[in-house]
Design goal:
Layout (H helix, E strand, L loop, with lengths): L8 H8 L3 E10 L14 H14 L5 E4 L6 E7 L4 H9 L2 H5 L2 E9 L5
Antiparallel strand pairs: 1-3, 1-4, 2-3
Length: about 120
C-alpha cells in the first residue's frame, strides 16, 4: 500500500467541520435482553446478525460487528448516509430492536470517507 503524506492541521479541521457524512448506530441491551443464545432454531440474535449483514450486502451499512467488552453495548453499525430518517428506519426494523432485546442510539459523524 502506498504511504500517503500526513494531513496538515487545516485539512484535518476541514474534515472535522464537514457536513454529516454517516451515522454510527450503537445497539445496547434492551428491556428484554437475555444473555447468551436463545432458542437454537431461530434466535433473535441470529436474526439480528443476518439483518445487519443483509444491510451491509445491500450497501446500507458499511461496517458492523459485535462489541466484545462485556458492557451493555452489544453491536455497532456505520451507515454511510446523511439521511438520519433512513438510518432510524433501518434501526427500527432490526429484529432485536422490534423484540425489545436491543435498543439503539444514533450519532452523526462528519468528515469521514467511507468506501
Amino acid at each position: 500500500m502506498e504511504k500517503k503524506p500526513p494531513m496538515d492541521d487545516d485539512a484535518i479541521r476541514g474534515r472535522l467541520g464537514a457536513p454529516v457524512s454517516c451515522f454510527l448506530v450503537i445497539f445496547r441491551e434492551g428491556s428484554c435482553y437475555l444473555p447468551g443464545p436463545g432458542d437454537p432454531g431461530e434466535t433473535p440474535l441470529s436474526a439480528h446478525v443476518r439483518y445487519q449483514f443483509l444491510l451491509m450486502q445491500e450497501g446500507a451499512v458499511s461496517f458492523c460487528g459485535p462489541v466484545t467488552d462485556n458492557t451493555d453495548v452489544k453491536w455497532v453499525a456505520v451507515f454511510p448516509t446523511a439521511d438520519k430518517t433512513r438510518v432510524t428506519s433501518f434501526a427500527d426494523e432490526d429484529p432485536d430492536v422490534r423484540s425489545g432485546r436491543l435498543k439503539y442510539e444514533i450519532h452523526p459523524v462528519a468528515g469521514i470517507n467511507l468506501p
